[in-house]
From TrEMBL:
<dbReference type="Pfam" id="PF02322">
    <property type="entry name" value="Cyt_bd_oxida_II"/>
</dbReference>
<keyword id="KW-1003">Cell membrane</keyword>
<keyword id="KW-1133">Transmembrane helix</keyword>
<feature type="transmembrane region" description="Helical">
    <location>
        <begin position="28"/>
        <end position="48"/>
    </location>
</feature>
<comment type="similarity">
    <text>Belongs to the cytochrome ubiquinol oxidase subunit 2 family.</text>
</comment>
<dbReference type="InterPro" id="IPR003317">
    <property type="entry name" value="Cyt-d_oxidase_su2"/>
</dbReference>
<keyword id="KW-0472">Membrane</keyword>
<protein>
    <submittedName>
        <fullName>Cytochrome bd-type quinol oxidase subunit 2</fullName>
    </submittedName>
</protein>
<keyword id="KW-0812">Transmembrane</keyword>
Length: 106
């Protein structure tokens, strides 16, 4: 989860410096985004589901992080973030149209 944002930042920077290999850095940025959000979904699923503890000690197993709930969160997290980004683009376009026409309503 820590390597994906670094990889994404490097890909974003090198995309503008590359001429022939720009598509490679585009794909690197895309997959860096997917890996980071997939990992965030796994972590969110683990926290929502909870941990097995007794007293103040962890009593769960090694593969407790691999359940259907965490996998579903990991799959749907990139979709939720993409939906949020799309809603922001639509909202910005609508606000820009309203400001350009001089009003804020329909």
């Amino acid at each position: 989860m820590l390597i994906a944002p670094i990889f994404r930042s490097v890909a974003f920077e090198f995309r503008f410096k590359a001429n022939r290999s720009q598509f490679v850095w585009d794909n690197a940025f895309h997959y860096g985004f997917l890996v980071a959000t997939f990992a965030q979904g796994m972590v969110l699923g683990a926290f929502v589901q909870g941990f097995q503890i007794e007293g103040r000690s962890f009593t769960g197993g090694t593969l407790d992080w691999l359940t259907i709930w965490q996998a579903a969160n990991a799959v749907f997290m990139p979709l939720a973030l993409a939906d949020t980004a799309y809603a922001g683009w639509v909202f910005r376009g609508k606000v820009a149209e309203d400001i350009g026409s001089g009003g804020y309503g329909p």
